[in-house]
Amino acid sequence: MIKQGETLPDATLFELIEDERAGCTLGPNSFSVREQTAGKRVVIFGLPGAFTPTCSAKHVPGYVEQYEAFRAAGIDEIWCVSVNDAFVMGAWGRDQRTSGKVRMMADGSAAFTRALGLEQDLSARGMGIRSQRYAMVIDDGVVKTLNVEAPGKFEVSDAASLLATLSPT
Predict the structure, then answer these.
(1) Alpha carbon distance 165, 14 (integer Å)
(2) What residues sit in the active site (predicted)?
(3) What residues are labeled active site?
(4) Domain 12-163, what architecture?
(5) Which residues on adjacent β-strands are paired with residue 129?
(6) pTM of the predicted structure, to 2 decimals
(7) Residue 129: phi, psi to the nearest 5?
(8) pLDDT tens, residue order, the chain (169 aa)
(9) What is the per-residue DSSP string for the chain?
């Protein structure tokens, strides 16, 4: 498992782009994790799946609600990463009203999640390989804070807990 002080692995994540913007096409776009975190402070939180109960009722809404507080603490971007495809993540983002606050990043093949060492096998529950629940603060590609949940828990990866590790800039 990745540790505090280590550099994020370079992997590709996908984001559904639904509005015209420079450098992006409409539909799924691929992004290099290394390029997207270079020179930025980014919060990345991972969770088992889009539209699942705790993820939809608590995890994503907390980051959407705390967006301004994270910005005040010097965070440039917030990413939600899940082992789902870009279309599912886009639909979930619309449902959760994340636009302009949380980037909904798809890790459809779990390549990034596996490279982090944060995968879990939920095949017995019909979900296949998924992400553990975690939250991290990245500074220029380096992990500064990493909070990984115990199985079945939601105590340290929530927005309030991660925000408490940051000091205003």
Answers:
(1) 28
(2) 55
(3) 55
(4) 3-Layer(aba) Sandwich (3.40)
(5) 121
(6) 0.94
(7) -80, 130
(8) 999 999 999 999 999 988 767 666 778 999 999 999 999 999 999 999 999 888 899 999 999 999 999 999 999 999 999 999 999 999 999 999 999 999 999 999 999 999 999 999 998 888 889 999 999 999 999 999 999 999 889 999 999 999 999 965 5
(9) ---TTPBPPP-EEEEEE-S-BTTB-SEEEEEEHHHHHTTSEEEEEEES-TT-HHIIIIIHHHHHHTHHHHHHTT--EEEEEESS-HHHHHHHHHHHT-TTT-EEEE-TT-HHHHHHT-EEE-GGGT--EEEPPEEEEEETTEEEEEEEPPTT--SSSSHHHHHTT----
Q: Could you give the dihedral angle defined by the CA atoms of residues 122, 124, 59 and 18, in that order, rounded to the nearest 10 degrees?
A: 70
Tokens 């890790």 identify what position?
Answer: 107
Tokens standing for 104? 């909904």
Q: Please name the residue that has the structure tokens 């606050």.
A: 101
Given the structure tokens 């290394």, which residue do they identify? 34
